[in-house]
Amino acid sequence: MRRTIPEGIGYPPVSNPRIEPRRGGPVLLRTATRPLAPRAEALRSAARPAVRWGLGHALPRTAIGAAARRGDLHGRLIVASSTTSEVPVDLFDAIRASGPLHRSRYAYVTATLPVVREVLANPDVRAGIDLGTGTGPLGRLGRWAHRTTPMGPLTPPSLLVTEPPDHTRMRKLVTRVFSVRAVQRLRERTEEIADDLLTSLAREAGDRPVDLVEAYCALLPVTVIAEILGVPDSERKTVLDFGTAAAPSLDLGLSWRRFRSVEGALASFEAWLADHVEAKRRDPGEDLLSQMVAARDDDGVALTDRELIATAGLVLAAGFETTVNLLSNGIALLHDHPNQRALLAAEPDRWPTAVEEVLRIDPPVLLTGRTVLRDTEVAGVRMPRGAVVTTLLAGANRDPEVFTDPHRFDVTRENAADHVSFSAGRHFCLGAALARMEGQVGLQRITERFPDLRLAPGPTRRDTRILRGFETLPAYLS
């Protein structure tokens, strides 16, 4: 019986053989198509994740590592981001010095702020990096493997990788909740949550160090975003655990075990979100998700179930994952710069600028990737369709042509808000106003409540490459 392997891997629908005589000749084995046998289907299901990992992690990790060993700046940057907790400012400077748009072995790379903005605003450049989507064998293999990819932040129809007109339609339905005016109405509630958490910290800590990430930096934003989306109190830890487990999905080069753990977390999160959306459909409230379920565009069209789940998941996860990093990075920076902390104590009106400076000097997101849709030109450089562009947000934030003495932490910096930590262009962070408000409330409240706060030995950074923050931040409160 002849078997044809579709698109490079796996098994086709198994055929049901029957014997038919051939006139004047031997017996022929003919086939009639029937559904795939359970064992063959299981083999295909098992093969797809392995192919996704191979194309999206094992192959890039090998290629990038080899390029780094040959001195490729982009390769060295990616390797450095996975092996050190320090911001690789020397590599940012080297990439910037090589020109506005550095050509590395596998991508165009920029750490120049005006060029980063130009790339992110270019209509010929789409969000995300397309791996395995070409027309050759690897492209066909990639498309086959991604048919069963669990929904995540880099999986359509996520707003992070969706382009107009769908991006415009979906974003419009949730933008009003995150407007500056709407966020200011949330400020009082955020202050109440922060004060309650700090009171609990003071009561439980005593003379022992307390982990500020676990007890404060994570709980403040997850409580706020959970209330916005109508998540019951009993399920907020579940959401927090999902977000933490799925955070590495933004990275390349994951080990097989880590990759499987991440995909498992994403699949569980997707199932939880589907149940949560259905619960809001049956019993709507005043929360954002209930509004999204009921919302219709100008033509009376609602979000599909996949769009609802993807948007709710992104808002929920992004609504606390990056803010956790902002708060932990800010606490560490202020601890390490006591003169800046003293200045804020004397002049509290400077807190909004201080938060912008935290975002600039140690942003929650290191970089973002783009793919060229059509031949285009950026900063005078012609880039062909299919080219990959890496915009180093953290590098652009230290562009010496924009920021004087860019490696210095200065809460009085007049143009601190010129950073690109929230990206730029049509994919500018939907929750930027919310994150800024939470950063101001969260950092000011803990600094004023515990003016003698001291970090204890042993803080650890997250082992994610794209998201930058602390895994643990032990501290003495007095």
Automatic annotation (TrEMBL):
Domain of life the protein comes from: Bacteria
Pfam families per UniProt: p450
Native source organism of the sequence: Nocardioides marmotae
Gene Ontology annotations of biological process type: cholesterol catabolic process
Protein name: Cytochrome P450
CDD domains to which the protein is assigned, alphabetical: CYP164-like (cd20625)
Protein keywords: Heme, Iron, Metal-binding, Monooxygenase, Oxidoreductase
One GO molecular-function entry: cholest-4-en-3-one 26-monooxygenase activity
Family: Belongs to the cytochrome P450 family.
Keyword Heme: yes
